[in-house]
Amino acid sequence: MPTKEKIIVALDVPSADAALQVAEKLHGHVGMFKVGSEVFTAEGPVVARYLVASGEQVFLDLKFHDIPNTVRAAAHQAGMLGASLLTVHASGGRKMMEAALDGVRAAARARGVARPTRVLAVTALTSLGAEDLAEVGFQGSPEEVVVRLARLSQAAGVDGVVASPREIAVIRQACGPNFLIVTPGIRPATGASDDQARTATPESAIRAGADYLVIGRPITGSPDPAAAADAIAAGMEIAVTPQMSQAHKS
Q1: Per the count of CB atoms within 10 A, which of 70, 162, 222, 236 is most buried?
Q2: Would residue 34 show up in a list of annotated catalytic residues for this protein?
Q3: pLDDT of residue 249
Q4: Separation CA 216–CA 98 (nearest Å)
């Protein structure tokens, strides 16, 4: 996979027009676009539907967390939209995650496509530190909480997890090489952390074993989003090349 394909750009904007302007500027420079709660609440499925129809890959990041029957129905609709990835909360439990899988598989059959939408479980939001997790009832360090939820997610059969850069290595060790890890909280070395508590640079996240990086403001807030994306991809390429060389030798 070309390195730029590992970049998912977060379209965290208030309107369809704004989202599609960003996507147009970044066409061919990144691998996927994240449609999240802000623009989906403002515009409904129009942005996701337009992007899929235009040939773009969509990460529908709505973090479903409800009773299994409701999540099954919502995941089915996400699959019918043609989303490549969708998210559920791992804390919703095994039965809920299994229901999401049922929903996307039914959608794939209805659409006549071989590969269903891949389901990712959100472990712990990257805005949460140790005190925040304790406050909502999670026992243990952020690393322990994330690994526990990642193992539960894998046991439920989902395709992977969304987890902060700081937990990539332990998830990879716990869940193996074929479990997808999608990582938000990515900030270039010169960037601000904004409201993310557990962040890392693109290069360090790739070295740790992330499959995809979700990047928003460092790209979308740039005067030249395409150039910003290209620069990040170039840094990622340098980071991943020694890994590939080492794997070749072993």
Answers
A1: 162
A2: no
A3: 45
A4: 30
